[in-house]
C-alpha cells in the first residue's frame, strides 16, 4: 500500500495521459543512475511534507531500487574447459528457464502460443537450477552449478527514461482550498531556499522538474494574457464602429468595468461560509448552488470573457436612445441636456432590466446543475451571474457620464458664442 493520491480508475487514466504519473502533481527526478535518483527522491519526499498546501500523507517517492534479482555469472574458464560457448549456454538457459515459443495452436478464433521449458518444480529455487543439465562437446551433460555462480542482487523495480535520461517520480497532492499552481510555486520556493542554505544537496548530474496538471494552467494563462486584451479591443472597435466616437464608446465601455467588479464580488461571496446559508422547503441553498471556494481557473476567465461581451448591452441600449433623441431635438443648454438624459434613462429602464433579467434567469439552471460537465460550467457561470447582477448599475452610470460629457460640450459652445 502507498500513500499516493486516491484516484478513480478513469480519473487515473486521464491524469496519467496528462502528466505521465498516477497523480495530478509531482516531480520528475533525472539522473545518471538509479541509486542517485532514488536517494534524491527520498530527500524530496522528506522536504515536500513541510511545504504549505501539500498534503503530507500523499507525498510518495518511487522505490526505484530494491527488487530482488537472481543473477547468473558465467564461469568462462569452466565452460571453456567443457567446450561450451556462451551463446549455446544462454540459449539453453533462455529455453529451459524462461521458455521458448515453438509454435502456435489455433482454437477457433483464438491463438495460443506453445512454449517449451522445464517444469516448475525443476526451476523454482536456486538449488534446483544448479541441477539443470547443459550439453557439452562429446555428448556430456554438465550441471549448471559447475558452469555459473548464482547470486541474489538488489536491482531496479522499474526502469523509466525520458529525454534519454533515467527518471524517477515523486508524487504528491494538495490540501483542500489550495490551487495546484500555488502549491507548486510554494514547493519550488521552499526547495530553492533549502538548496541555497545547503540543507538539500543535489548530487552531480541529478536534476528535477515539477510536472502535473498545473502546466495546463500555466499554458492557458499565457494564452489568456493575449486573448483577454484582444477580446476587449475587439469589443471596443465594434462599439466605435457603431457610435463613431471614442468618448461615447469609452462611456459604454465602463459597463465592462462595473460588470468585472460584480464577477469578482460573486467569486468572493462563494468563498464565504455565510453566503446562502439558509434552507427553504427543506432545501439548503448552499447545496443547491454548490457554494464553495472557486479558484481563478481557466473556466472562470472564459466566463469573464463571455461577460465582457454581454456587459455592454445596457450601455448600448441607453446610449443609442440618447443619440436618437439628440438627433431629433439637439440640446442647447445644460438644462435641456439634463432633461434629455432623464427622459432617455427613464424610458430605457424596463428594456435594460429585461435584458439583464433574461441573462440572469438563463444562468440559474447552470448554477444549480450537477453531473458531468458541471465542474466546468459552474465556474464559467459565476462571473456572468455576478457581473450581470451588478451591471444593472450601468443604467445609472452611463446616463450620468453621458450627461457630464454633453454638458461640458454645451458649456464650451456657449462660452464661444459669448466671446
TrEMBL record:
For this protein, the parts annotated as crossing the membrane are: 224-243, 250-270, 298-322, 352-370, 376-402
Q: Which SUPFAM superfamilies match?
A: Multidrug efflux transporter AcrB TolC docking domain, DN and DC subdomains, Multidrug efflux transporter AcrB transmembrane domain
Report the superkingdom from the record: Bacteria
The UniProt keywords, alphabetically, are:
Membrane, Transmembrane, Transmembrane helix
Short name of any one Pfam family annotated for the protein: ACR_tran
Q: Does the keyword Heme apply?
A: no
Alphabetical list of InterPro entries matching this protein? AcrB_DN_DC_subdom, Acrflvin-R
Question: PANTHER family of this UniProt entry?
Answer: CATION EFFLUX SYSTEM PROTEIN CUSA, PTHR32063
- Name of this protein: Efflux RND transporter permease subunit
